[in-house]
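REVIEWER CHECKLIST
Item 1: Sequence provided? yes
Item 2: Single chain? yes
Item 3: Sequence as submitted:
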Amino acid sequence: MPVPALIPAVMTTTPPGIRDQPMVDKLPSAKSKRLSSARRIVIKIGSSLLVDDSNGHLRRQWLETVAADIKAAKARGQDVVVVSSGAVALGRRHLKLAKGPLKLEEAQAAAATGQIRLAHAYMEILGALGIGVAQILLTLDDSEDRRRFLNARATLETLLKLGAVPVINENDTVATAEIRFGDNDRLAARVAQMVGADCLVLLSDIDGLYTANPVRDATATFLNSVDEITPEIEAMASGSASDVGTGGMVTKLMAAKIATGAGCAMVIASGHKMHPIAAIDGPDRCTWFNAKASPRAARKQWIAGLLDASGTLIIDDGAVGALRRGKSLLPAGVVAIEGAFARGDAVRVKDRNGIVLGRGIIAYDSSDAIRLLGAQSHAIENLLGFRGRDEIIHRDDLALDDSVMVEG
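Item 4: Structure as written out by the authors:
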């Protein structure tokens, strides 16, 4: 479902990329429908919201209201993914670790202890509402290695189709200091990119982006909408006001760059009140970072222009017609393969006359793809010895050239 039209600017003296409105209660009514109109939502919850810093306990009552908001979103037909911090904050109390910065190995030990409690809390609270929950632990490598990216995406897509809510955290027990996401802001953006979300919600200890840190500067101005993350906007970022989380506004702007570049709008909103997700559709102020394209269009652009092709598939006339009708490419339509490639690589797609139709992300290694030439999808398991994807290139992973008209 498309994101509503952007709110028109009413000030001309703000830095480039910013849209600022004078009063929250004068925002157009479209603002109140923006979150509920999204098709797929990723919600990031930080440690400072989830865990009471004074005693290290989970804020259970607050999490129950978040679960109620998730149930309401699913009732609207929306897919929901949760990216949750909190394992280290929960685990350090049970290991009786002192307050203050932890050594890397101490943080990893706390994460191992706290993750069990965190997963159990989500399972219990969401399960009480009849919502299935799945736990997934990721690292930066999982989002940057193409094969692992595809595996994670396939798992997430399957979970969402089955109606479950994936709850994702960074795999702190194997992560190192050099590859940490920073309080999961960037992890949430990578997940939004991975699942093709059209809205990323960062629940924070602050209600949005200001021209300066409002804790230190009383003259800081609140920004309702950002169209482009310019150097002026990046200069506004400051450290987090929280002692629990490791992120701050800097990592949130990094997340915004990743999300909007993938066609996903992002919103920073305060998570301090009960029912914080529902509040985004209400009168409370928050900062929206606007994407210039849909997730689907952004992904197609990435495939078409940013990936080097590793090989070529030659397809028959029937497959050409199917692609023009917006279908996926099946093994039955492939007549020849050129070059060597691995699953997850980009490949060209040509017709029998050598005309390039586009390029896509291949679902099989070239050695397996050769064995599937002309085969029906139901024969894949017998030919390869395992149950692979029915499509050799799924339509979501295929970018056709402009000259290839897609019918009806």
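Item 5: Key structural point noted by reviewer: Residues 104-127 form the longest helix (24 residues).
Item 6: Recommendation: ____
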